[in-house]
Amino acid sequence: MNGVATATATSSWTVWGCEAQLTVTDPGSIARAEHIVRAELAAVDAACSRFRPDSEVSMLAHAGGRPTSISPTLHTFLDAALTAARLTDGDVDPAVGSALVNLGYDRDFDALSQSPSNRIASALGTATVVTRADWTMVALDDGRVTIPDGLTLDLGATAKALTADRCAHAVHGELGTGVLVSLGGDIATSGPHPDNGWRIRVCDGESEPSTVVEIGSDTGVATSSTLRRRWLHEGQMLHHILNPQLARPVESYWRTVTVIASSCLTANTVSTASIVRGPSATAWLGHLGLPTRSVAADGAVIRTGGWPDDEQDRS
């Protein structure tokens, strides 16, 4: 799709413990675009949040293992999560919610990071093995879902990315403007892009290697990281990406993995699975052929799939 040589307008706010950023190529549409995005965020939160006791996901945990009717929104998001699990052989698994709760990640991250125990310095460590569950225990059929009694689902590995995709497509579809939506760095675009493309700075911290890439329309970019969403639990510093088979945080072979794909959902599924797979991810990423940029624990930057190198990585 052709670019447009127009000014852009941007709006940003905090949601789900991260920054939401909305940019449109038609500045006059920014207020209506923000209304569309906020409405979608509210609908997803009501369906998918495991931090709200009144959300559908929270209520499923108390359904006693019985088949339960769910909304079309939750059905869409749960289907996406189960598809991601199947395509990654379970490396991206929505059944890790109970394990995250047992590891102390039982509230919105803003509240978790501000708790007194999390402000105490501690040596890095890993958690002990906790309750095992996997995605094959979830049955989704004709608008009904059945999960084991007491299991808490966590859709975090796919929901934010899918929401970015849905928001971008909704804004373009309703208003016709080009749009970029970023939810905590999960990025989706739709419609006409600025004349030089959308410029994205890829970095996960001021001291981390960074680069700038240009992307076009109908594109997703996602970064998965072991550097963010860290908290202290029982004297051990943990991060949020779990090895589903061990029910504990993966070893930090990669600091970050960034993927560019045709959707943010695909990009985030691949980036998260790569963090879980560790050293074996490089060959897998090469096979997939998607543009990727991985930063190893020692700071080495590895690119695959024709990652656009318009500006050199720098520290």
Account of the 3D structure:
By secondary structure, the chain is an alpha+beta fold. Helices cover 30% and strands 26% of the residues. It is built from eight helices and 19 strands. The chain has an eight-stranded antiparallel β-sheet with strand order 2-3-7-8-12-17-18-19. A three-stranded antiparallel β-sheet has the order 4-6-5, covered by helices on one side. Strand 5 and strand 6 form a beta hairpin. The longest helix is centred in the middle third of the chain and has 20 residues, at 156-175. Mean pLDDT is 86; it is low at 116-130.
Q: What is the succession of H and E elements?
A: EEEHHEHHHEEHEEEEEEEEEEEHHEE
Poorly predicted regions are: 116-130
Task: Please tally the β strands and state the result.
Answer: 19
How many separate helices? Answer: 8
Main sheet summary: 8 strands, antiparallel
Helix content: 25-40%
Indicate the mean pLDDT: 86
Q: What is the SS-derived class?
A: alpha+beta
Strand content: 25-35%
Output the strand order for the largest sheet.
2-3-7-8-12-17-18-19
Shape: globular
Task: Give the radius of gyration.
Answer: 19 Å
Report how far the terminal alpha carbons are from each other. 34 Å
